[in-house]
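We were asked to recover a plausible sequence for a given structure. The inputs and outputs are reproduced exactly as logged, with field labels preserved.

PROBLEM: sequence recovery
POSITIONS: 245
GIVEN STRUCTURE:
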């Protein structure tokens, strides 16, 4: 019985040791963490991993983090972690973690919230705050050989300074006529929340979407879904991922 159980144990449930090989701030609150791990050999853009930290006294904490990179054969992948005030796990990554530290990972998780070129498009992507991370992975994957697939990214973030990978996203949108970026800054003078006009602009650039991926807080995902359905997009096209709060 026990040996049969171990034979059929899904790979996704095993914890894998991973080493931090690079770590750097990307915004005032978000840290990019590159990890070397066997799990980097096979994952789809949009998927996430569970990260487990173990303290010296044996106390453990685990949280989920989306993979920001597209698979590149390097044996590593990138996470982008927003340090929350008093955040148990995100606080460790933003304040204490260093190159050479080890953590445990399991995954990749999230088959339905994932995309690869053969899945097609056009792609309508909506991210709130750090919810842009799995969508960044999809755009990076698209850039690896699927540039003919149109994509529009609606990105809601407090300020431009807090926007993850903004330079990369803006240069992608400027260089690639098949990509548009629709930024809504909620805490800047003249800023706005996402609204019907912004969604209308994205759909006007994109045309009818074939796939819709929305990720962020519960509030962002609910608002974005409502606006996109009100604009006439079929609910069955929409995939969502909620980060919590
Ligand atoms: C599928 C999935 C993918 C995720 N991917 C990412 C990612 O790519 N990058 C990323 O930064 N986070 C991501 N998250 C969120 C992440 O898992 C943690 O919830 C977050 O880092 C907080 O954990 P913590 O231990 O630092 O904070 P905790 O110690 O758990 O909480 C600290 C404080 O923050 C509040 N809080 C907890 N979670 C959130 C939240 N998500 N937003 C706002 N306040 C919160 C709590 O109420 C508490 O007050 C993802 C979550 C899911 C479910």
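RECOVERED SEQUENCE:
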């Amino acid at each position: 019985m026990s040996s049969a159980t171990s034979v059929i144990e899904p790979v996704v449930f095993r914890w894998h040791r991973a080493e931090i090989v690079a770590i750097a701030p990307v915004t005032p609150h978000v840290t990019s963490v590159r990890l070397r791990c066997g799990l980097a050999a096979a994952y789809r853009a949009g998927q996430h991993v569970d990260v487990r930290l173990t303290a010296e006294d044996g106390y453990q904490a685990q949280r989920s983090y989306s993979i920001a990179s597209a698979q590149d054969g390097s044996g590593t992948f990138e996470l982008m972690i927003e340090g929350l005030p008093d955040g148990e796990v995100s606080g460790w990554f933003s304040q204490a973690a260093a190159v050479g530290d080890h953590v445990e990972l399991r995954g990749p998780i999230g088959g339905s919230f994932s995309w690869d070129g053969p899945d097609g498009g056009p792609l309508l992507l909506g991210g709130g705050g750090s919810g842009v991370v799995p969508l960044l992975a999809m755009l990076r994957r698209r850039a690896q050989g699927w540039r003919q697939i149109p994509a529009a990214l609606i990105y809601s973030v407090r300020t431009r300074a807090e926007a993850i990978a903004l330079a990369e996203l803006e240069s992608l949108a400027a260089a690639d006529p098949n990509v548009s970026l629709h930024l809504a800054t909620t805490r800047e003078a003249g800023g706005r929340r996402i609204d019907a006009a912004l969604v209308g602009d994205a759909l006007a650039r994109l045309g009818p979407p074939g796939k819709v991926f929305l990720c962020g807080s519960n509030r962002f995902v609910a608002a974005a879904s409502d606006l996109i359905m009100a604009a006439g997009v079929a609910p069955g096209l929409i995939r969502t991922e909620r980060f919590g709060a």
